[in-house]
Each structure stands twice: as C-alpha cells, then as structure tokens.
Amino acid sequence: MDGTTWTRPTPAPTRPGQPGFDEGWLPFVKTSPLRGSALNAALSNHPNLDLRDYVRDMTEYGVTLGVDAARLRAPSANVPNLPSARRPGPARAATLKWIANEVKKGRLRGPFTTPPHPQLHTWPVGAIPKSKTVPLSVKARVITHFSFGEDSLNDSIDHDRCVLEYVRYIDAIDAIEGYVADGGQPWLASTDLEDAFRIIQVAAEHLHLQGIRMVAEDGVEKWYCDGHLGFGTASGPRIFDSLSCAIHWVLQTRCDEAGLLVSWFHLLDDFLAVGKWEADARAADKIKTDFLAEIGIPEQEAKRVPPCRGLKYLGLILDAESRRVSAPEDKLDEMVATLQNLAAEGSIRTTDLERVTGQLTFYGIAFPRLRPLVSALYASSALARRRGWWMAKPSKEARADAAIIAKVLRTHPSTPFTDFYLNPWDCDDVVATDASGEDGCGGFSVKGGYMFHSPWPVGFRVDDDDISTCLQEMVAAAVLVELATPGSSLAVWTDSRTMKDAFGKGRSPSAPVNTMLRTILHTCAVRNVHLVVAWHQRDSSTSALVADVLSHGDFQMAREMVPELFGARLLTVTSAVDRLCGNVCSITRA
N or C: which end of the chain has fewer CB within 10 A? Predict the structure, then answer.
C-alpha cells in the first residue's frame, strides 16, 4: 500500500509542446495547495519509477480521468440537475453554497454565462445530508452524478482503471499483535487529509468533462467547469490513492530512518500509525504533521487523533489496550433498533433493510460469529429490491436471525483480536467427532478428557436423501456447542468436507442441514462460543479413526487406540441428540 507495486491508473496528460496539446479554451491554472516540488523531492528515492512520474505529472499538469472518448455520449451543456438542486429548499441552498465556496477556492472555473467549451459535458448535481444528526443547512454532501444516463462519464472508464486494493483491518490488528508478541505496548495515531480528492487537479484536456449547469437565485443560467477531481468519478479513488501511496511511503521511510518501530496504514485519505511504544507513536505523529505541512496538505483537525491506546479507524474501534475490536456505540444502537423492529414487526422499509444488511456486512469484521447469520437478511433484501417492493417482508429465518443478532450486539459488543488468529489446536477445547449412518454419533476431546456416544433416536431416517452424513456430523457439533463454556473457543474436527463448507458459507441447499446449521450458529452467537470447524483425513488420521470407533459406541477400542482415554469421562448426550434430531424430523426414543 506504499506504492512499491503500484501501476498507473490513467494515461499521462498531454504536456505543452506535445502533439494534441491545446489549452486555448480552458488553460490549466495551479489552484491546489499541494506543493509538488516538495513532494517530488521526497519521492526521489521511491523504488517505483512509474509512481514517481505519475505524481510529478499530477502536480505539474493535473490528471486525466481515464475516459474512452469513443464510449462517451455526445456533449450536452444543458443536463438537468437532481431534483434537490432544482426545488427551493435547504438542499438547493446547500448546492449553491458549495458552488460559491468552490469558486472562491479556485477549484470550480466560472461562472460563465455561456458554455465555456464547445464540447462541454454537464452532469446533474444535488445535495444530501452528510450526517443524520447535522442538518443540510449546516453540512451537506454535494454529489455530481457522473453515472447519469447511458454512456455516462463513468460508463466510459474501463473497469481496470477503477480497481483499488483496499487495506484490511486485519493488517492493523496484525501490527498491534506483532508488537505485543515482541513485548511492546502499542499506541495508535490517525488523521484524515483535508478536502481529500479536491487536492488533485484535472488536466486541461479533461476540464470540459466535469461541467455543471446551475440556475442562480436571480434566474440566470450559469456554467462551471470543475478543475479538481470530483467526488463520484469511477477512477477517482484509484487516482487519489496514488497520492496517498506516495505519502504513505514517505512517512514509513522517514520513520524507519529515524529508527522508530512504527507501521503506517492508509485507505484513501485516512492514515493510521501503529507504534510499538508510546514514544514511537508520538514521534511518528510529529513526522506526519511536519511532512503534510511541508507538502501543503492540511489535516482535518476534527478527525485527527493524537497518540492513544484506542481509536476509530475506518469505522471500527481498535483498542490496543484491551486488544479488542468493536463497532462505534451509535452505530450499534442504530443497528440494534432496526433489527429489533424487523424481528417484531415482520415488515420493514426496503431501504432500511438494505442499510442494516450493509452495516452488518461492513461491521462483520468486528463480529465474525455473526457473519453467517447475515445471509438470510441479504436474501430478503435482494428479493425486495428485485421485485420493487417499498416494504420488504423478511423471511421467518431472517427475522429469527435479526433477533439473535440484536441480542448478541448488546451482550457481546466487541471481539478479541486473538479470535482472528485462532488455530484449531489453540482453542480452549479440541474435539474429534464422527457419525455412523446406523449406530449414531460420537467423539472425544483432546484437551477436555472426555468422550461420548449416542445412538440415533427412532425416526431419524438416516437413509433419506436429504438426511446426509453432513447432518449427522452436525448433530455432534451442536451438542458440543451447547456444552461449551460461554465465551470459550471450540474446535471440532470432522471428516465431512460438506460440513466444513456449510459452516464456511453459513448456509446449505439442504433444508434439514440448514436447520441444524442455523441452530448451531444461533447457539454460538448467544453463548459467545467461537467455533472452528476443521477437516481431517478419514482413513489416515488417528483422531478420525478413534472418532469413527466412538460413533459406533466402542469405548474399549477407543481406549486401546489412545491409552490416554482410559481415564476420560463419559458424557451423557442422548437427550440432547434426541432434541436436536427432533428439530429436523419426527423422532421417538425406543
């Protein structure tokens, strides 16, 4: 993420003196606060020559947008704006205010009383609230709709120019855990760059592609050209990340040269430093502040977090002291309220269902036990959107999952970092299980000193097509999850790849298997049990062979194969097996 493996997202701009260069209509004028000479000097030893050249062109001539002119529709200087910018009200006022501010900063060229370029492309603009708690009149997000209509600006940009490898939360957690393992006491610091995309200017040859038409308060039509990278361009994130990669590399290099034990991370305009010690983090934070001032990029003071033990990064709370990750409390409250309403009412606005499903998917990193339970909500959301329903009607499974998720978010609002690295053999309990088509299920604990067996109840029709060996194996896992200590970790070794795959996906095409799977997932979530399902070879693994013997109820042979089992406790699990099997079919105990 420091640009060492970076590749150019868009072609170089046409420079003065090159064929095709013409800035007679809208000449390039330097309006960015970015000090190109300082940045380019700092990058003089960057190992990626392409990145160095791209940043130099960016600072001297601006960037091209990666547009394929053959795929872009004919120019139009009179595209209507979004309704929010046309109707009187706070949204229109916010749009006009944004335009005035951008003109004042030199980023919008204009106003012009006639289109300033014969090939001007205008796009709809409008304003939306930037926050639910802040009114439009105070703070708004102005959107330029570069995807409007067919053959839009974004349609004409190749997908390859838009692909961006995003940083993973686990990368920062890796750094924290690595420093802890090395005896450190990690401290964190973060910042956001002010104005982000607006730091970067657009090359003269593409200024006409970001046009805006607005009817002013006096009723007069006015045109503008956006001279800086606009929010909403498909290639914008990757273009901006080129600058962020360059900054990242300089920060990491200067920290390394200073002998600091610090790891830098970034996602677009968000930067995070993880220091092994407080002194490392404080020194890295000063290096960052000094360098950003050196190249003329201001920080967002409201979002700058000086060195501390825990902070919010990319929407999640990273706590280096407790070594836990969680979602912000306000987001948790919002998700819980929506989920409780969904579970109780049975219907919900489709937009609300989509929002909470997206939030759960995003915050899934903080709640890995809940990830498989999102699938039913996602399916209900997709169905509602596909059928055009204003009010969605989530399935029975989705409503049950919503109730469980809401409960878990309240009772277990964070996850230990160690959960992300759990090896099956590092779990609190490690159990090998197996199931026999006729005789039942069984297994033994490697760490807990117990073994068990239960025959199948009468009526558990093991020869039915939809009662697979996967379901039989899951019965044993379900029993173990119920017996596990709340808050503990449990590894279950199975010789069923189908079972392992079902847990990996969080669903199964078989209704009975899906029922048992959901039972296990719900139990894990409520009891805060971290379940790891691992596969072992059926015929060549000792653990698998012993589990197979126990599935037939042969305790003596199991003891002979593993002498340590002579002192093992025998668990009574028959009643639990009966109840769990009864969830998927009608059974009786003979």
Answer: C
Give the Cα-Cα-Cα angle 210, 212, 214 (nearest 5 degrees). 175
Q: Looking at residue 7, what is its pLDDT? A: 78
**CA separation for the pair 443, 26 (Å, rounded):** 76
Q: Which residues lie below 8 Å from residue 279, measured CB to CB, with a gap of 6+? A: none
Can you give the length of the chain in residues? 590
Distance in angstroms (rounded) separating the CA atoms of residues 82 and 95: 10
| Residues sharing a CB contact under 8 Å with residue 307, sequence separation 6 or more, in sequence order | 187, 188, 189, 275, 278, 281, 282, 285
Q: Are 223 and 211 in contact (CB under 8 A)?
A: yes
* E-strand stretches of 254-365: 262-267, 270-275, 305-308, 310-313, 316-319, 324-326, 348-349
Using 50, 70 and 90 to split pLDDT, how confident is the model at 186? very high
Closest C-alpha among 486, 472, 491 to residue 527? 486
Torsion, Cα of 116, 120, 123, 129 (10° steps): -30
Question: Which of 37-46, 155-164, 218-227, 526-535 reaches the highest mean pLDDT?
Answer: 37-46
pLDDT digits (tens, 9 = 90+) for 76-98: 988 999 898 888 888 899 999 99
Contact present, 58 and 88 (Cβ < 8 Å) = no
pLDDT at 405 over 70: yes
Q: What are φ and ψ of residue 45, in 5° steps?
A: -105, 10
Q: What is the pLDDT of residue 1?
A: 65
Asked which of 219-223, 440-444, 462-466 is least confident by mean pLDDT, the reply is: 462-466
**Environment class of residue 476 by beta-carbon count within 10 Å: exposed (0-12), middle (13-18) or buried (19+)?**
buried
Q: In the numeric block, which tokens belong to residue 247? A: 């900054």
Residue type, 37: S
Q: What's the per-residue H, E or C state across 247-268? A: HHHHHHHHHHHCCCCEEEEEEC
Structural contact between residues 212 and 108, judged by C-beta atoms closer than 8 angstroms: yes
Return the structure tokens found at 219. 């009723």
Task: Report how far residue 32's alpha carbon sits from residue 106's, in angstroms, rounded to the nearest whole number.
Answer: 8
Tens of pLDDT, residue by residue over 330-349, are 888 988 999 999 888 888 89
- 121 forms bridges with which residues in the sheet? 76
Burial class (CB in 10 A: 0-12, 13-18, 19+), 542: exposed
Residue 590: its pLDDT value, please? Answer: 43
Round to whole Å and give the CA distance between 227 and 62: 9
| Identity at 56, one-letter amino acid code | R
Backbone angles phi, psi at 15, to 5 degrees: -95, 160
Residue holding tokens 């490690």?
Answer: 430
Distance between CA 170 and CA 421 in Å, rounded?
10
Are 172 and 265 in contact by the 8 Å Cβ rule? The answer is yes
The set of residues, in sequence order, having a beta carbon less than 8 Å from that of 110 and lying 6+ positions away, is: 103, 116, 222, 223, 224, 225
Q: Is the peptide bond before 368 cis (omega within 30 degrees of 0)?
A: no
Positive or negative CA dihedral for 268, 56, 26, 162?
negative
